[in-house]
Amino acid sequence: MFDIRPIVLVVGILLVTLGIAMLLPALYDAAVSNPDWKVFLASAVVTSFFGVSMALMTWGSAGTMTLKQAFVLVPAVWVALVTFGALPFLFSELQLSITDAFFESMSGITTTGSTVISGLDTTPPGLLLWRSLLQWLGGIGIIVMAVSILPILQVGGMQMFKVEAFDTPEKVLPSAAALAGSITVVYVSFTVLAAIALWAAGMSFFDGINHAMTTIATGGYSTRDASVGAFDSGLIHYIITAGMIFGSLPFVLYIQALRGKASPLFRDTQVQTFIGIILVATAAMVTYQMLQQPGVDVEERLRASIFNVVSILTGTGYATEDYGSWGPFASIVFFTLMFIGGCSGSTSCGLKIFRVQVITAVALSHLRRMIYPHGVFIPKYNRRAIPENVSASVMSFFFLFIACFGTLALLLTFTGLDPVTALSAAATSIANVGPGLGAEVGPSGNFAGLPDAAKWLMSLGMLLGRLELFTVLILLSPVFWRS
């Protein structure tokens, strides 16, 4: 019989953590005399009650986790956190519907950044802080999952990044807890440094801490309707650009660098390719805009281009201006960048750089075999041969990613969305980017006007994209439950 106790225990512990996190916006609202502090306090009590109850009922059962339980654990954790994370949105003075509250919470914890809340400039500060906390917690959660659980589950080629300490599923939890400590130190340090830099650049304390959390988490929730464009400061834009890049690099390499092994961070082909894409895409955007509008300020175009390129590539979703108005070439480039994402083991999303590299290496190797049938060509990643099971896993993930994107876009058209909005909404949800293209879901738009059915479909898309597809879809297979 399937034993759910280890899953319930982990979910319970994380719900307690979420409940404690709710006290922060409660305290802030109380400090500024906003009545929503009662909502956060009540939500914290309810969330912690369920979390403590679940943990006490199953205490001592975590060491027996199996591979099947690990597969169930991942989506169970995210769905539980999203559900309870929606409580403050549901009962706050904004009075969001169940659909909108769940959508906002899902977008936050999956670090997508799509929002249904308008009037952010006048939204109660506690809710703004809660949105940022959701993305910050979701960011660190996805890093731990990417370096501990997904390699064990062999999801989409992630077995390439298996840590030696995680030899078996039974070792995942204690080993992940040890590694999570080191990741947390790096994660918190980056957040604090980003906040200090933003304060020094002219942001207020509140805006600085919120944007620091959502920058490092590559989430993109802002405290302003105009996003980062509301801050007319080149220095702020460059600081956030750097923060998004730092959040999109492998955190395990940061830990190695702190232990005296900094060379892997610079020699890793995933990092090199990621930086290369940023440079090429930025150069293309600057050149295109200068050709379209001769005489424009080069520094201003460079700043806007690199900021928005990094924001979309990393899946952060910040915007300094409506890049959809830059022209058709820019729209196609940004639509393509949505799918790529950042590095594995980071807070970023999308296909991931390493999968793009593996697909490219396998394709080139196949082309060479067609030209030289008797030649031996071995695809490589990071100067090492790519195992066949990794190639097959990555190819399967890529096919499933495109299939889910197409299916989601088709279903969104059934809800009444036009084809462009449906394609853009499907891309931005499954790639966890945030803003899409077009007037309705673009950088200057808002998702509040979408039909409820579209919001639920997009919430499913966010979950699928954030949890690497297989960990969710495998639960629909009868074979999985019989095996």
From TrEMBL:
A Pfam family: TrkH
Organism whose genome encodes this protein: Pyruvatibacter mobilis
Main location, first listed in the record: membrane
Function: Low-affinity potassium transport system. Interacts with Trk system potassium uptake protein TrkA.
Family: Belongs to the TrkH potassium transport family.
Single GO cellular component term: plasma membrane
UniProt superkingdom: Bacteria
Keyword Ion transport: yes
Membrane-topology annotation of the record: Multi-pass membrane protein
Transmembrane segments: 7-28, 40-59, 71-91, 133-155, 176-201, 235-254, 274-291, 326-345, 390-414, 456-481
GO molecular function: metal ion binding; potassium:chloride symporter activity
InterPro entries the UniProt entry points to: Cat_transpt, TrkH
Subcellular locations according to the entry: Cell inner membrane; Cell membrane
UniProt keyword Calcium present: no
PANTHER family: TRK SYSTEM POTASSIUM UPTAKE PROTEIN, TRK SYSTEM POTASSIUM UPTAKE PROTEIN TRKG-RELATED
Keywords: Cell inner membrane, Cell membrane, Ion transport, Membrane, Metal-binding, Potassium, Potassium transport, Transmembrane, Transmembrane helix, Transport
Binding, K(+): T111, T112, G219, T316, N432, V433
Name this polypeptide is given: Trk system potassium uptake protein
